Amino acid sequence: MKAVIFDMDGVIVDSEAAHIKMKIQALEEYGIACSPEECMPYFGRSSNAFFSDFIKKSAAHISLQEIVARKHQLFLQYVANDGNVNPIEGALELIHGLRRNNIPLALASSSVRSNIEWFLKKFGVFDCFDVVLSGAELSESKPNPEIYLLAAKKLGTGPQECVVIEDAEAGVTAAKMAGSYCIAYCNPVYKNCGQDVSSADMLVNSLTDISAERIIGINI
Fold it and tell me: What is the pLDDT of residues 109-148, one digit of tens each?
């Protein structure tokens, strides 16, 4: 193992409930109804993928770029004003532990860069990452492995030498397709919503169940 790549939403930040709420609000502003259950299959995927599908299903003449931008605006307003979006238990300690052991780290998230940087700076871990990638800037989103292949390349190592920490089915699929070792955090938010992360190499119920030393000891 030469490097570790983290997803963000649901792994570092307990933000999925807020994302669902703001997606529904953005759609409502454009006259499209959506339930929380309809959002769940899109965990781990980009806002572009989510809104593109809903625009097609509604046959509405809506600018994808415009509604995505509105959702991100609503989300940042929500987290800035409400402040009730917290780090996942054990995530920050794990990041700092890996950094203390001089393990190269990358952040590979489907979120937009503004959200990524806001949270990493808020939680004091922005400078811990050697590489920060936003899937919203790439041609394909998870479960396509593009973001993990690029993260490994920017870290200067092969994807098969990286450990990826994910929580959503799309992200686990992307990590395994890239050839990486994948640890899946079984986020309780996803319980009973059809998320299957069983293809991961290791499943944990809490990030406190793994340590920097345990990850460093993974033989891949």
Answer: 988 898 899 999 999 999 999 999 998 788 888 999 999 9
Of 87, 166, 77, nearest in space to 124 by CA: 87
Distances from the Cα of 27 to the Cαs of 57, 78, 189, in angstroms? Answer: 12, 16, 22
Count how many residues are written for the chain. Answer: 220
- Global pTM reads 0.88
Same domain, yes or no: 59 and 113: no
147 within 8 A of 135, measured Cβ to Cβ? yes
Residues 98 and 75 in one domain: no
- The strand ranges marked E within the chain are 3-6, 105-109, 131-134, 162-166, 181-185, 202-204
Q: Judge contact between 192 and 43, C-beta under 8 A.
A: no
